[in-house]
Amino acid sequence: MPAPTVHRRLLALLIPVLAGLLVASVTVLRAPSAAAAAPLTVAQAISSQSGTGTVVGYIVGEPTATDTVRFSSFTGDTALAIADSAAETSTSRMLYVQITSSYRSAFGLAGNPSNVGRALTVTGTLTAYFSHTGLKSPTAMTFGGTATTSPTATAGPTASSTTDTYYAAALGKSGSSLKSALHTIISTGVTTISYDAVWNALKVTDQDPANSANVILLYSGISRSKTLNGGATGNWNREHVWPQSHGDFGTANGPGTDLHHLRPEDVTINALRGNKDFDTGGTAVSGATGNYTDADSWEPRAAIKGDVARMVFYMAVRYEGGDSWANLELNNSTANGSNPYLGKLSTLLAWHTQDPPTAAERARNQVIYASYQHNRNPFIDHPEWAASIFG
Ligand SMILES: [Ca+2]
Ligand SMILES: [Ca+2]
């Protein structure tokens, strides 16, 4: 047994060392607030459920129970699920964020469904919520990675920041090599749905943000009851923006059921559009304000001109002649008939520029990716790629 004096000497030596370590560790622990160090990732917040913290993640949905998150058709404004990936579907990699009353109008998903996919910076207490890793009692919530006094006026993250991983093999490419890389990306790991399942999917992807009982019809812009789907006059049905006959793909699982170009439309308006190519001109379409048509073309209303262009850009890249489907391609004709082509490319490129992607269009892309097909429309995420491939 060592003599007491040895103990005292050891202690005398150790105390300053221990004190120094304590000071150093306190300094390190305090550094984040003093130096405004990088906020936590969602993964870090999940593994560090104590004290307060600032976390940055992407809004992926609305938690409704410990292991249940709604990715669309949101019902409340009181909770968010955030994740390090905007495409996350596993609740184990999500942080549930409480939205207290002062933040609900800007951040609640029932009122702001297009917030899905946006980056969020939130400060609050790192503690369980819905019996799940969470953050409660927020003291600051802003979109993006920087604080602002007017979060609703702040632009969301650019699509590229949320989808760089998805598009990794295409980044930096152009022209035909970009098209080829994108074809592989958007054709890999895809889930196809049946034509019958398209009905319910459209009730989610095209829900009226102002009325969850309705869908918005593409060309007419009319809000109509979800229950009025069918084939009768006054019903809405499933419009193929790339007409089925342009490639004769029918309605088997594949291009005929691809949600990226399927939209609800009034039965009569859908029949009027028929299989016409897209171009400007003609006479006003009764029942669909802002749309025009003549013998060989259809011009959609201004607010969806770019949406239409991006849908058919997607189709031309997604379908390249494999899997027993025709190689769909765009050209400058408005007389394509039943050929697997669609026009008029120069007009579509102009519409794409005139009407860039909106938050609602990006949200629709995200819902299809996260909840249905697990592939994306690259021209909504990267509008600049249209000119590189089709220009
Ligand atoms: Ca638009
Ligand atoms: Ca093609």
UniProtKB/TrEMBL annotation:
Keyword Cytoplasm in annotation: no
GO molecular function: endonuclease activity; hydrolase activity
Domain Endonuclease YhcR N-terminal: from-to ranges: 40-143
One Pfam family named in its UniProt record: Endonuclease_1
InterPro entries xref list: Endonuclease-I, His-Me_finger_sf, YhcR_N
Cell division listed as a keyword: no
Keywords assigned by UniProt, alphabetized: Endonuclease, Hydrolase, Nuclease
Protein name as catalogued: Endonuclease I
